Each structure stands twice: as C-alpha cells, then as structure tokens.
Write the structure tokens for this entry.
Amino acid sequence: MSMHSVSLVFEGEVFSLYVEVEGKEVHLRFDGDHTWERKLSQLPIEGTLDLFCIAKGLSQTECVMTLSVDDHPGWTGRDTVGASGVLVFKTSVPVT
Amino acid sequence: MNTLLIRYRVLLIGLAVLFGSSGLRGQVQSSDAKGNGPVIVPSKASGALRFNTEDKSAKLAFISKSSGDTWYFGGSGSGAIENSWASIVNSGQVSPKATAELYLGKTGVFRSSGDPSPGIDWIHFRLGLVGSKIRLVDLERAFAEQVQKKLFTGVSASGSYNRLIGGSTVFSFGAGYERANNVDELTEVEVAVETTRTDPQTGATRKVKSTKTAYQGSYLESNTLPLTLDLFVKPSAVALLGLNTFARQILSDGRPKTVIGAGLWILKEKSPAIALGGLVAQLDDAFKASSPDDSDSAGKRIKVSLVVNLPLFNR
C-alpha cells in the first residue's frame, strides 16, 4: 500500500455536500462562494481510489467534481441536479 | 455602538471595493420587499448591491463552513439608505442605516447530507445590531424645536428552520425578537427653511433656501416579535423563474400586524439558487390592525418593488 496526496474540488451552488474517500467521510472546506475544497496528504491507497459524493440542491444546478492524485488529474465528473434534488458522484480511480 | 455603525457606514461600503481583488461573488436570495427572506443557501461570503423601491443597500458577508452535517458561522455588515429615491434626487441627502449581523447554523438536522434520500434541512440563528439616523419634523412645536435628529439603535435575534424539499421547493419558518421603529409608517417630507436678508440701503432682499429630508408623524420605537413563513418554488418546467410566497406576523406591543406577499424571481442559469432580480408585491398590515376603523384602504398598504441584485465582485 503506497501513500499519495489527493485533492478534491467540488463546484456548484448546492445546499449540502457529503463526500467519502475510501469509505470514510471527508470534510471539504467551503470557500464562501460556490467551491468546496480539500487536500489530503499521505493517504494510503491500494490499487484504486474510491470516491462517493452526495450533493443536494435545486434542480438544474450544474455541479463539477474534480479529483487529483499526486497533483495529476485523476477524474472529473460533471452533472446536473435532477428533479429529486439529489446528485450522486461515484467512481473508482486506478492509482499507480 | 450606533454612532460607530453610522460613522463607519462609508467604511463598510469601502470594504466592498477593497475586497474586489479577493474574487468574492455576490448572491442574494429571494425575499420580501424589505429584503428579508429564507436563507436558501446557508449563507455565503458575498458582496452585493441591492436596489429596489424599498431598499438601497450594499452588503458584505463572510462564512466559515465545511461539508457534511456541520455547524457553520458567519457575519455580515451592510449600509443602506432609508429615504426614497425622489428625496435623494431632490435634496441630495440620505438617511443612513447600518446593520451588523452574526449567525450560526447547522445543516442536517432531521435529514442528513449523507442520506441519499431527497431533502436536506438546516437551522439558522442570527444576532443583529442596527443603527440609523433620521430627522423628525413636528410643526406644532416651537420653531427652534420643530426639526430634530433622531438616532435609533436596535438589537434583533432570530432562529429559523429551513428545508429543501425535492429539487424544487424551499420551506422556512422562523421566530425572533427585534427592536424596531415605525419609520416605514411615517410620511417622508421635505423641510425647507428660507432665510431672507434685506439690504437696509437699497431695500433689496436676498433669500437663501436649504432643504432637508425629514419624517412627519408619530414616531415610535417598540419591541416586536416577528414570525416568518416563506415558501420558494422553482417550477421544473421553467428553468429560470422562481416564485416565493411569504407571510410575516409581527407582534408589537400586543398588536399583531400581518404582511403577506409574493415575488417572481429571475434565477441564474445553471445556478438557480441565485436570484438575479425579481418583482415583489406585498400587502402590509393585511388585517388592518393599525387602522381597524377602515380609514386606511388596502391600496395604500400594497407595495410593489422591482428588485435588482448586483454582485459587487466577479471571479
């Protein structure tokens, strides 16, 4: 199992945000505008990095979730909140 | 404290300009004609100018918040002009008003942010301080005492419960305490003073006229207990429009006053939580608690306001 730095950036005018990395909740810091960010240093990762995110807001809100590993682009998810008001991002990113 | 707030009203607005380089962006939620409404997004750091027929203000806010079901806190400061556009144009004078607020809140009270089911809720507590300066005119008094300056300071506190239902509806109800005055019910007038001097040799006269904005009527300060109810709906069929309805029950010295109204809002594309502007209509004192003898018609108590919210800063 190797150690990596992971950067998470979520953009979108949502009412709430919940993020899990490797099955554990991670608190992203709100910048006061529309961006939530967090950088995790020395995160132990084996094989793949699991990301799970729930955003809740008004329908037709555009959201972008960006994941970087060791300062390299890892994954970007872009979607729009639906009529239910819930948007879920879920991905597994291979890490070497 | 009120003197400091009024004295530094210019600084509050000046800070808005200084913060331009930090990349903060303004956002204003839907509201009633006085700018009071549900906290749609649990507050934001922002700078915004708000213009409507009822309110002319600049506001700066900050927030500290993390994702998840966490507590957040923040504050805001604003400077406003109470008198009408007409009196500003005619006399060039303003009746200033400054407000400072602190707030505390928490998301995920009964519906967690980590629950994949629709809906999220939050509670919001606010503590505020307001100061304003106006002139009062009473022509029944001795001439030297007819125009008097009045400094008003008031404390307010409130709590509200807010909930996003599905992806289209925001519901909010709250209660609080507010020290308030009745400036909104007074008559705004222009007080003109003419001074005439006569040349004893030629008989020529010279007149100097000064004009000041003042308020006429029975000025009162009172302790009020406002109850608020707001409902905001974004129809799914119409992407950029939102509708809010609201009711305010204000208990003041035992007399309840009810304000009801509705607003139609233009929402920002891809960010419908941001209201760019709107049209608000409200009926003050809907059940005529102030004039039960029917001396005040409904037409006089209807207010229609066009609201334009201008973000001070853009990324």
Remarks:
- The two ends of chain B are 34 Å apart (CA to CA).
- Confidence is low (pLDDT under 50) at residues 1-28 of chain B.
